[in-house]
């Protein structure tokens, strides 16, 4: 009797669950329906429940039925967000772009422009990797800022541009340091100089200039005798520019030491040349 009672309880629970499931139409039943309004209703319900995959599948199916109706814009808008909310940013970017092309005068066009830029931001990788999407995000955000200067989204767009530029700065810095660590001192000096040109307002600007000086000094040290004087003079030129530009920098003392050392090397080379001339 006990086993029979347990079996009956299990059976009733199973039937109850089956009843609940049967109350909700399955995806196959929805997609096979010929009733476009019914399909749209179910897509909207899944969208509200944040069941993005199911909503997207039904929206895809129902879009052709509404292409010439006033509802099409709203359907496509939500369809685009189903991709975004599934973190399918490549597809979402394309859908936001298509929305803009299809509804250029929509009240939602500003939002779509921002979101298109934002999808590239979401695809921007860590600094060590290829930064194609970072450059695209900056470009699209900058266009958004220029074309919608009064938008409530401008401040956030500007903040994200600064964040992305910082990532590019980090990438360039790591690249320059790699040259230095590999002993490619001329390439390192040029890279640090370019880094400073690209990010003159950086909090690390004096460090970049200092590393350029340090790199060019090492390059001069390793140069052939006939090139040493010329290259140490270039170090002094860079160092004097540093002192003029960053007079309060924590690197100033080291930069002054490079000037002293470079002058000493130039003098040593000049003395050697004089000895050669007199003998």
Automatic annotation (TrEMBL):
Q: Which gene encodes it?
A: bamD
Sequence ranges assigned to domain Outer membrane lipoprotein BamD-like in this UniProt record? 42-206
* Protein name per UniProt: Outer membrane protein assembly factor BamD
Task: Name the keywords, alphabetized.
Answer: Cell outer membrane, Membrane, Signal
Would I find Signal among this entry's keywords? yes
Which Pfam families does the record match to this protein?
YfiO
């Amino acid at each position: 009797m006990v086993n029979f009672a347990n079996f009956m309880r299990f059976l009733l629970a199973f039937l109850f669950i089956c009843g609940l499931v049967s109350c909700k139409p399955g995806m196959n039943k929805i997609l096979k329906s010929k009733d476009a309004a019914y399909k749209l209703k179910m897509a909207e319900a899944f969208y509200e429940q944040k069941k993005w995959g199911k909503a997207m599948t039904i929206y895809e199916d129902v879009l052709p039925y509404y292409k010439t109706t006033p509802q099409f814009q709203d359907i496509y808008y939500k369809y685009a967000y189903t991709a975004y909310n599934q973190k399918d940013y490549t597809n979402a970017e394309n859908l936001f772009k298509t929305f803009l092309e299809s509804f250029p005068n929509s009240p939602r066009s500003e939002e779509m422009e921002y979101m298109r830029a934002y999808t590239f931001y979401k695809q921007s990788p860590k600094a060590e990797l290829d930064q194609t999407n970072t450059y695209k995000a900056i470009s699209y955000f900058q266009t958004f800022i220029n074309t919608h200067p009064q938008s409530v989204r401008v401040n956030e767009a500007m903040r994200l541009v600064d964040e992305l530029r910082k990532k590019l700065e980090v990438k360039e810095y790591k690249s320059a340091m790699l040259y230095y660590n590999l002993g490619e001192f001329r390439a390192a000096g040029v890279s640090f100089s370019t880094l400073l040109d690209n990010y003159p307002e950086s909090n690390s600007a004096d460090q970049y200039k200092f590393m350029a000086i340090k790199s060019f000094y090492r390059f001069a040290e390793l140069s052939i005798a006939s090139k040493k004087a010329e290259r140490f003079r270039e170090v002094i030129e860079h160092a004097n520019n540093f002192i003029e530009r960053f007079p309060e920098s924590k690197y100033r003392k080291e930069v002054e030491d490079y000037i002293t050392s470079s002058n000493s090397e130039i003098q040593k080379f000049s003395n050697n040349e004089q000895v050669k001339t007199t003998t």
